[in-house]
Fold TetR/AcrR family transcriptional regulator.
Amino acid sequence: MVKPIDSSIKDENLIKQRREELQKGAVSLFKQKGFHRATTREIAKAAGFSIGTLYEYIRKKEDVLFLVCDAIYDEVKARMESVINIQESTREALHEAVKSYFQLMDDMQDEVLVLYQELKALPKDAQEYVLGKEKEMLQLLERVIQDSYPSLTEKELSLISNNIFIQGQMWGFRRWILQKEFTLEEYTDLQFELLQTQLGKRAIQ
Amino acid sequence: MVKPIDSSIKDENLIKQRREELQKGAVSLFKQKGFHRATTREIAKAAGFSIGTLYEYIRKKEDVLFLVCDAIYDEVKARMESVINIQESTREALHEAVKSYFQLMDDMQDEVLVLYQELKALPKDAQEYVLGKEKEMLQLLERVIQDSYPSLTEKELSLISNNIFIQGQMWGFRRWILQKEFTLEEYTDLQFELLQTQLGKRAIQ
Amino acid sequence: MVKPIDSSIKDENLIKQRREELQKGAVSLFKQKGFHRATTREIAKAAGFSIGTLYEYIRKKEDVLFLVCDAIYDEVKARMESVINIQESTREALHEAVKSYFQLMDDMQDEVLVLYQELKALPKDAQEYVLGKEKEMLQLLERVIQDSYPSLTEKELSLISNNIFIQGQMWGFRRWILQKEFTLEEYTDLQFELLQTQLGKRAIQ
Amino acid sequence: MVKPIDSSIKDENLIKQRREELQKGAVSLFKQKGFHRATTREIAKAAGFSIGTLYEYIRKKEDVLFLVCDAIYDEVKARMESVINIQESTREALHEAVKSYFQLMDDMQDEVLVLYQELKALPKDAQEYVLGKEKEMLQLLERVIQDSYPSLTEKELSLISNNIFIQGQMWGFRRWILQKEFTLEEYTDLQFELLQTQLGKRAIQ
DNA sequence: TATGAATGAGTTTTCATTCAT
DNA sequence: GATGAATGAAAACTCATTCAT
């Protein structure tokens, strides 16, 4: 299910390029002031073009938010896929996956923050579309875990994946408390240790 | 440390009462449309007074947001304190505490959602003030856990408390996925089981 | 021709007293912020009573301005009359009169400033009423001059009185320039010297 | 020393042109109702553009007042300079200068009135900037007088210039009394006569 | 395609005035 | 007579969106 945004521009490549510029500028702007406080003029400026040009590539201000959220999810997802080795499904692979995921969440803290705070400002249908991508990411995690710990029940698997998922996001989202107490490495190691305890216990049941 | 909001009304009791009305109305409004999409006129109406009266009790629209966030935290905190039995510190007490906390988060889903989405719209100092209350809640959780499992390291204690804390919030915040797969009871039980595994392992170390 | 302001209070003495308080407070307020920038709440506060009470003694905000302008003129006029000795009409008396008038304008700079800046904000009829008082003051000056220099034509008399009159007001109104170059004494002496030249010349014609 | 007003318009020429339109409309509006009673919508309308457009060329309502005061002073000053012949410094030139200045004050009565009433509504720094222009005008007068009557002391020169200056302004400001008794010609002639008496006396000292 | 000036509906905020206590 | 809470009309100002160039 795609959710394309109308544009009066014909050249598809140009659209792609401009929207990328737009998205980059908008994220850094939304980081600072959030979607609602950012004006379309500021968005255009941050993207490097005029207000008139902005409206050649979107129809409403809300479209910018959609574009941004969509792009962030795409990037997170792409990087997760590139990093998670599904072929290899040892327990070591899980460790690597979690480490890579947490590292990714550290790299993309600001983007994730924007996502958390502004997603609800999207219209319901756009929200659902974007959250679909999150589900795919969750499934990616689930698969890695299941490969290493096949004896988990479906609910255990689902819950544990969810927990890891949000623990990664929280590293950035709750940085004001977590990053004062832990380095990324400490956080990663300790969370993984706790995870292993849970999994280990369950694996031998 | 208090953060009072100026009012031109002299009767302190009236201020208290009206602000409570205001806060009640505003929460239910923000649930629907969020802070930014709600107009001051709508806020006044939702609280049951005229726009003029609204501005007798606040100075800026932002003040409403502060009032709301502050009140939510206060309520959550008060209910947590009333529910967590610090006297009794058996492991059963921890179970009760976690169950009560998750129940509370279920009851106050909408409020927590509002908090998550709008907190960043507050000025920095108000944000810090409000987040201070969150820290106190975290400490409450920490204390209960520590009483039952005194051998945990400081970092383990901190991380585990954080995990429980956000797992409670996520129950409401990520309802679109969790509440489709779990009932509150299932979610609570399974999370507590996982928690016990972690704690049990560590307790006997 | 009187221009009374309605009041719901019966006790005439109380009205008089309260309006005096009001007028005092208002002048000092208008000095700072001008009539338009001063709110009725501030006016009430400056006068030492509540907004409700304020409206027992006036009907509209504009009434305050009228009261103030009226009171200032009354005071200026009363002090001029007390100071100008009409009985004695030597040329020395003129010197005394001018000196006293300039001193008076120095004492009441702020009041005169308020008058200059806000009089035009009054409705036409109130303006006319108040300006009537100014004419009486001018006539006072005219009479003193005429007594000493009876050979002046009517127009000369009128113009010279006007000039003295505004030179007095300017001392306060244009203080930003005059009071940097002159002391009050210097200003008075030099203006009077110039005046004498004019009068002397004309007296012997 | 300039005091520029921010605008979101890029075309400098357009800014100049629009602000001129704005200033023209605003003066005629302020003449009628004064600055405070004029709404921004009325100002926009008087200038011939929409409220949105108005705010493309100014930041605050106050900016309009500054624009207006500044423009009036500039016009008065330009016309004074064009009319006062500094080359030629006979006593006849002084007569011409005074006549021209009084004529100018007659032409611009309304503008001068606006200036008198609204200048104090400007922020202090803008006031000082504008009053700087008034000083330059005073110096212009001083120079003309000094050229014809070089033996005057500095204080005499300063005071006499000031007197002429305000006599011109008062012609418009106190029209309710002066213009009932004098024609402009009579006023000019008589004031000049009085002036000459003073100067003549002093010149031969 | 790109630009940016123009627009006006909609928003926040103020404040003179009223009126129940 | 005094008080001050309540009111809402009206004000300043913003900003998404359009459209002529």
